[in-house]
Amino acid sequence: MAKVAGFVAVVYALGTVAMVWTAATRDEVGERPAEAIIVLGAAQYNGRPSPVLQARLEHTLSLYREGVAPLIVVTGGRQEGDRTTEASVSADFFLKNKVPDSRIAREVQGRDTYESLAATARFLRRRDVSDVVLVTDGYHARRVKAIAGEVGLHARLSPVPGTTGSIRRLLKESAAVSIGAIVSHRRLSAWLH
C-alpha cells in the first residue's frame, strides 16, 4: 500500500509540474476579446517599477493596444517601507503611455496574489465583469489562474514572454499549486501571513 501511495504522490507531483510549465509557456488570449486585463503587481522602488513589474506593464500595454480588452486592472498594495502602492506605480505607467484614466481600475489593498485577485473580483462583479486576461510571469501563471477561478473570475493567461523561471521557481510554484488545490488558495494565503 505504501508503494502505491508513493507512486500516486510522485505522479501527482510530476503532473503538477507539467501543468505549471504548460501554463508558463502558453498564451491563451485567442481571438475573443476579454472584458479586462489584470496585471499582477510586483515590486516597485520609490515609484519606479522593478524590472519584473516593468515587463508585466509593457506586455499589458501591448495587449491593450491590440484590443484584447477595454479595461486594465492594476493590482498591488503598499509593502512595508513603501511610499506608494504597486498599483499606483502601474497606473502611472499606463497614464504616461496615453491610456485614459477611465480605462484603468486600481486594486491597492492586496498584500499577495490571493488578496489582490479577491479584491479585484469583488469590484469587477459590481461592474458585471468576469471575463479577464491575467498578466504575470510564466512560472506564476498556473497558480494565478487557479486563484482567479476560486474567486469567481473566468480567466485566460497571457504570461510575460521569457519568464518561465528557474527549475527552483517552477518547483516552488508547483508546490503552491498542489497545496492550494488541496486546502484552497485562500487558506494557503492566510497561512503564509
Verbal overview:
The protein is of the alpha/beta class and 193 residues long. Helix content is 51%, strand content 13%. The protein has seven helices and seven strands. The protein has a five-stranded parallel β-sheet. Helix 6 (167-183) packs across helix 7 (185-192). It is globular, with a radius of gyration of 17 Å. The termini are far apart.
SSE inventory with pairings:
Elements (H helix, E strand, L loop, with lengths): L1 H24 L10 E4 L4 E2 L2 E2 L1 H15 L6 E4 L10 H11 L7 E4 L5 H14 L4 E5 L5 H10 L3 E4 L9 H17 L1 H8 L1
Parallel strand pairs: 1-4, 1-6, 4-5, 6-7
Antiparallel strand pairs: 2-3
Helix pairs in contact: 1-6, 5-6, 6-7
Number of helices: 7
Rg over CA atoms, rounded to whole Å, is 17 Å
N to C succession of SSEs = HEEEHEHEHEHEHH
Q: In whole angstroms, how far apart are the ends?
A: 36 Å
In the sheet with the most strands, the strands line up as 5-4-1-6-7
Outline of this structure?
The protein contains seven helices and seven strands.
Features:
alpha/beta; five-stranded parallel β-sheet; two-stranded antiparallel ribbon; 193 residues
